[in-house]
Write a structure and sequence with these properties.
It contains two helices and three strands; from the N terminus they run αβαββ. It has 89 residues and is of the alpha+beta class.
C-alpha cells in the first residue's frame, strides 16, 4: 500500500477535528518516493485513525498532533504519530 497516500487521506479527515479542539495538526512526508508497505490499506487507515483520535483526545488545548512518514537507514518506510499530550505512564 502507499503509506503516504493513506496519511494524506487521513489528514483530510482529522484536520477539522483537530481545529475544533484548538489543536494544530501536521503531516510530514519525505520528498523522495516511499516504497510500498506490505499491508491492507483499510486496516492501515483504521489504525492511523485510531492513533490520531487517541492523540486528539489526550492532547490538551493548545497542543499539536504530528504524523510523520520517513525512511529509516535501510530505506524502509516508518510511520510515527506524536503529540504534545501527557503520554502514557
Amino acid at each position: 500500500v502507499d503509506i503516504v497516500a493513506i496519511t494524506r487521506e487521513v489528514q483530510q479527515v482529522v484536520e477539522m477535528q483537530a481545529a475544533s479542539r484548538n489543536l494544530e495538526f501536521g503531516l510530514s512526508t519525505p520528498a523522495v518516493a516511499v516504497p510500498p508497505v506490505l499491508g491492507h490499506a483499510a486496516s492501515v487507515r483504521r489504525l492511523l485513525l485510531i492513533l490520531i483520535d487517541n492523540a486528539l483526545k489526550f492532547t490538551p488545548s493548545p497542543g499539536r498532533v504530528d504524523v510523520r512518514v520517513h525512511l529509516d537507514n535501510g530505506g524502509r518506510a516508518v510511520l510515527e504519530v506524536a503529540d504534545t499530550g501527557i503520554g502514557i505512564n
